[in-house]
Write a structure and sequence with these properties.
The chain is α+β, with helices and mostly antiparallel strands. Among the domains are: about 5-90, 2-Layer Sandwich (TATA-Binding Protein); about 125-240, Endonuclease III, domain 1. It contains 15 helices and 7 strands. It has a 5-stranded antiparallel beta sheet with strand order 1-5-4-3-2, covered by helices on one side. It has a two-stranded antiparallel ribbon with strand order 6-7. β6 (about 155-160) and β7 (about 160-165) form a beta hairpin. The longest helix has 16 residues, at about 190-205. The chain starts with 5 loop residues before the first strand and ends in a 7-residue tail after the last helix. The mean pLDDT is about 95. It binds a DNA duplex through α5, α6, α9, α12 and α13. One of its GO terms (cellular component) is protein-DNA complex. This is DNA-3-methyladenine glycosylase II. Its EC number is 3.2.2.21.
DNA sequence: CCCCAGGCGGCAG
DNA sequence: CTGCCGCATGGG
């Protein structure tokens, strides 16, 4: 391998690449990355060209390699920024652990999930589409539908006989037809929502930079929920995963409610006051708490 | 046939 | 603003 195609990113304190791998590989068939031998393979579009990258741990660094495609020095900076943001490597999460340690029901997470970072979805359009796909259906089916969409409309790069995909652009999905999406088992409504959101992004009516420029959480959330198909849950999830908003709590999320129930924090789904009290104790770290609670769902015997 | 799944929009009150 | 209802679609 050409060494000038390799980039090293220092690993911060309280960061576990194994936890990143675990999250990206947790029993679901995600079409936007491949994991093999402790290495992540991911296609990325840089300056209009799709390149294939690999990410692995190498001593005190994450090592990013470009396996196919050429990257300029500027693109290397982009790759570092991308990975740093994807795995939320910039943040010091010790304050979050201090809060966890104060709660007897959650303190074990500091040890069991040590170094887990909030894995992001940089592309806001992708994050919103993923939410719409996942609304009110089980996750394994959602991943199937996403794969059909990505393999039909997304860009791809081939390497060693395997295809690696990037999420479709809004411009492409804005041209998709209802029938095409319904054939992939999108419901009528979801097909409508996806095309509508794609048109909004393609026209510039909706963009990550415009949302980021808004002054506060409430207005950012409102700018999202103004669009058909984006409700409170989707807006919060998108803000949490794409804009890394600490306040982005996907209220009502079935996984979140199940996790709260497993930890005996609530007895049933209507106990909003108890949920509010919990999150009040985690000001500034709400989205991290959600992410760690989701992480806990994979632990079998909590009872 | 039933209920559920990482909801949403619409419409009464 | 809140609460409820219909809606789609596959899976157990």
């Amino acid at each position: 391998m050409n060494t000038d195609q390799q980039i090293l990113v220092p690993i911060p304190a309280l960061f576990s690449f194994q936890e990143c791998l675990w999250f990206l590989n947790r029993n679901y068939d995600d079409c936007l990355h491949v994991i093999s031998d402790n290495t992540i393979y991911k296609a990325l579009e840089i300056d209009g060209e799709i390149v294939l990258t690999s990410i692995r741990e190498s001593g005190p660094f994450l090592e990013i390699a470009v396996l196919k495609g050429n990257v300029s020095p500027a693109s290397k900076n982009y790759l570092v920024a991308y990975v740093t943001e994807w795995f939320d490597m910039q943040r010091s999460i010790q304050p979050f652990y201090d809060l966890l340690a104060l709660d007897g029901r959650l303190a074990y997470m500091v040890h069991d999930f040590k170094g887990l970072r909030l894995i992001g979805i940089d592309n806001l359009f992708e994050a919103i589409c993923w939410c719409i796909i996942g609304q009110q259906i089980n996750l394994s089916f959602a991943y199937k539908v996403k794969r059909r969409l990505v393999e039909r409309f997304g860009g791809k790069i081939e390497h060693d006989g395997q295809h690696y995909f990037v999420f479709p652009t809004a411009e492409v999905l804005a041209q998709a037809t209802m029938d095409e999406l319904k054939a992939m088992q999108f419901s009528e409504k979801k097909a409508e929502y996806i095309i509508g959101i794609a048109k909004a992004f393609a026209s510039g009516a909706l963009s990550k930079s415009a949302i980021e420029a808004l002054p506060d959480f409430t207005s950012r959330k409102r700018a999202l929920t103004d669009h058909k198909g984006i409700g409170a849950w989707t807006a919060n999830y998108a803000l949490m995963k794409s804009l890394k908003e600490p306040e982005g709590i996907p209220h009502g999320d079935i996984g979140l409610l199940n996790a709260l129930s497993h930890h005996n924090i609530i007895q049933d789904r209507s106990e909003t006051l108890k949920i509010e009290a919990l999150f009040n104790a985690f000001k500034g770290w709400e989205s991290y708490l959600v992410f760690y609670l989701w992480r806990s769902l994979a632990v079998k015997d909590l009872s």
